[in-house]
Structures are given as structure tokens and as C-alpha cells.
Specification:
Elements (H helix, E strand, L loop, with lengths): L14 H5 L5 H21 L9 E4 L2 E5 L10 E5 L3 H13 L11 H4 L15 H14 L4 H10 L4 H8 L1
Antiparallel strand pairs: 1-2, 2-3
Helix pairs in contact: 2-3, 5-6, 5-7
């Protein structure tokens, strides 16, 4: 009887992906629409002293900026002040229809933060870096080597990865 190597089917590094919560774009879409509605209300009421707003008005022109949301090829756009209300209304409608969902794959978009991997942000940690972070935390908490090894095993680390992380 032939032996079958089951290890070629197994990838225990997929634990983080397995544990991840599914992404719900409708939540970020709703947050973004809420920010657009706030911008429209702020501009219509003449309230220009609002922190973290998406727009600035000067010389009859509105500068509208949402980091990580590309509109007309740019993240900052300039609209004549008289057309800003129509622009925001159309933007709210398009966002509600899902036209910008491709930009909403990261929850930070709705908060106005640039997407991961862009200038000024860190790339995601590798599995090995996460293991080293666990070791550092274990040292801070005064864990024994056995407790640390158990925690690393629980994360799906192999013996070689544990040895490298503890190194």
C-alpha cells in the first residue's frame, strides 16, 4: 500500500486567516457616507472650524480631500464653491451604490486614514515578526520559557520557528 504525504496539503500558517473576522464593506460605506453628509452640513451651515473635516474653502473654491479615496484620479479635488453641494450629494449617492467599494477594503478608509502600505504606514507583520512580538510580550510579563513556547505553539509555530523566535 502506498503512503500518502498529507503534509503537502497542510499549511498551519493559515491560522491567522482562519481566525480573521469577515470584512463587511457596508459598515465602512456607511461611515464614509456619514462623513460626506457631515461635510455637506458643515459647508452649508458655514461651519468651517470643525476638526478633521474633509474640505477647506478659500477664494470661492472648495478643496475636498479623502486620503485613500481616488476621485477623478486624485485624492484631493477642487470644486467651485457653488457646486460643492451637488458634488457631495452625487458622491453620497455613488458611495451608497457601491461605486467606491474597491477603496473600502480597509476599515481605515472610512476614518480618512491612508491605506496600509502607502507612504507613512507600516506593511503587515510577517508570521515570524508576530512570533517575536509574542516573545517580547512574554518577557515583559515574566513568563517562563515553557509558557512562551506553549503560546508560540498555540499560534501555529513549528519547532524551528519557535527556536528562531526565542533566539
Amino acid at each position: 500500500m502506498a503512503k500518502i504525504d498529507l503534509s503537502k496539503f497542510i499549511d498551519n500558517n493559515l491560522k491567522a486567516e482562519f481566525d480573521a473576522k469577515p470584512y463587511d464593506v457596508s459598515k465602512d460605506r456607511a461611515k464614509l457616507i456619514k462623513r460626506f453628509e457631515a461635510a455637506l452640513n458643515q459647508q452649508q451651515s458655514g461651519n468651517s472650524k470643525v476638526p478633521n473635516k474633509l474640505w477647506k474653502s478659500k477664494n470661492g473654491v472648495v478643496e475636498f480631500s479623502v486620503p485613500s479615496l481616488t476621485i477623478n484620479g486624485a485624492t484631493t479635488n477642487y470644486i467651485p464653491e457653488g457646486q460643492f453641494g451637488g458634488f457631495i450629494t452625487a458622491l453620497i449617492e455613488l458611495t451608497g451604490e457601491g461605486e467606491f467599494d474597491k477603496y473600502l477594503t480597509i476599515s481605515d478608509v472610512a476614518k480618512g486614514v491612508a491605506p496600509k502600505g502607502s507612504a507613512g504606514t507600516r506593511p503587515p507583520k510577517t508570521f515570524e515578526q508576530k512570533l517575536k512580538s509574542t516573545v517580547a510580550a512574554a518577557k515583559r510579563f515574566g513568563w517562563t520559557d515553557a509558557q512562551t513556547k506553549t503560546a508560540l505553539k498555540d499560534k501555529g509555530a513549528t519547532d524551528e520557528q519557535i527556536k528562531a523566535a526565542l533566539g
